[in-house]
Amino acid sequence: MGGHADHSRKGGRATHTRLLLMPPLVLLFLLGACGHGTQAAPDATHAGALKSQAGCGCSGRKDQDEKTAQGRGTCRCKQGRHKLDSGSTPDLAPIPFKIWEDAHALEVRSSDFKQRTSLPLVHTFNQFGCSGDNTAPSLAWSPGPEDTQSYAVVAFDPDAPTGVGFFHLLVYNIGKDVTQLDPSSLPPGAAYGRNDYGATGYGGPCPPKGHGAHRYVFSVYALNAESLDLGEAPSGALLRFMIKQHAVAAGHIVGYYGR
C-alpha cells in the first residue's frame, strides 16, 4: 500500500510538471475540455464570426468593400454590386494596385467608351461563343511625374471566375513621351506580354453567360525604369510584379460587359 501511495504521489508530481511545461494555449484547451465536458458546438453564425475574426481580410476601400464591427471585435466584409442593364456583377474583387489615390494620378480616357460605361461589342472577343471584332479600344493618358521613364498598359478582368482574374492586354516599354496607345500598332520600342488566352496582343472580353457584367480595367502605369527586360511575351503575373517595383503613378478607366 505504502509503495503504491508513493508511486501515485510521484505520478501526480510528474503529471503536474508536464502540465506546467505545456504551451499556454494547449494547457488552456486541455483544462477547458476537461472542465466543460460535452459542450455544445457553436452554431454556423458563431462559427462564421470566428472565421471572420481570424481572417477579416477587408481592404477598406470605399468602392470595393467595407469593414464593419460585428459584436465582440469580429468583423465581416460587405461588398457592393453594380446594377447594370446587362445584369448584376459578381461580388467585387479588388482592382489591382489601387494604391496611388493620394499620390500623382494619371487621367486615362478612351475615344471608344466613357468611364464606367458598357464596352461596345466591337471590343469583345471573337471565339468561345462571343462574336465581337476583338479590336482593342484606343487609350490616352495625362503625362506622368518628372521621374517617369516609361509606361505600361494592362487590361484586366478582376471578376473572371478563375480566382486570379484574367489578363486581356499587356503592353510595356512604352516611351516616356508617348501618351496614347493606338489599337492598330505599338509605339516604337514597346512590347506585348502574353494575355490569358495564351496569345500576345489584345484578347477582348468574353465572360460566361449569366455571370453578370464584369469590370474591364484598363490601367496605365508610369514607371521609373526606361525599360523592363522580361524576355519574350512575359506573363501578366511577371509584368505586374515588375510594375509594382517601378510604378510612380497610375490611372485607369473601367468598362463593363456581360452576356
Can you tell me about this structure?
- By secondary structure, the chain is of the alpha+beta class.
- It has three domains: 2-39; 45-79, no CATH class; 108-257, PEBP-like (Phosphatidylethanolamine-binding Protein, Alpha-Beta Complex), CATH 3.90.280.
- The chain contains four helices and eleven strands, in the order H-H-H-E-E-E-E-E-E-E-E-E-E-H-E.
- The chain has helices spanning 2-21, 24-36, 44-54, 236-246, and strands spanning 65-70, 74-79, 108-109, 117-118, 139-141, 150-157, 166-175, 180-181, 191-192, 214-223, 247-257.
- The protein has a six-stranded mixed sheet with strand order 4-11-10-6-7-9.
- A hairpin with a 3-residue loop joins strand 1 (65-70) and strand 2.
- It is globular and about 45 Å long.
- The protein starts with a helix and ends with a strand.
- The model is unreliable at 1-90 (pLDDT under 50).
What would the keywords be for this entry?
4 helices, Phosphatidylethanolamine-binding Protein, six-stranded mixed β-sheet, alpha+beta, globular, single chain, 259 residues
* CATH fold title of the largest domain: Phosphatidylethanolamine-binding Protein
How many DSSP E strands?
11
Number of domains: 3
Beta-strand share of residues: 15-25%
CATH architecture of the largest domain: Alpha-Beta Complex
What is this structure's SSE topology?
Blueprint: H1 2-21, H2 24-36, H3 44-54, E1 65-70, E2 74-79, E3 108-109, E4 117-118, E5 139-141, E6 150-157, E7 166-175, E8 180-181, E9 191-192, E10 214-223, H4 236-246, E11 247-257
Parallel strand pairs: 4-11
Antiparallel strand pairs: 1-2, 3-5, 5-8, 6-7, 6-10, 7-9, 10-11
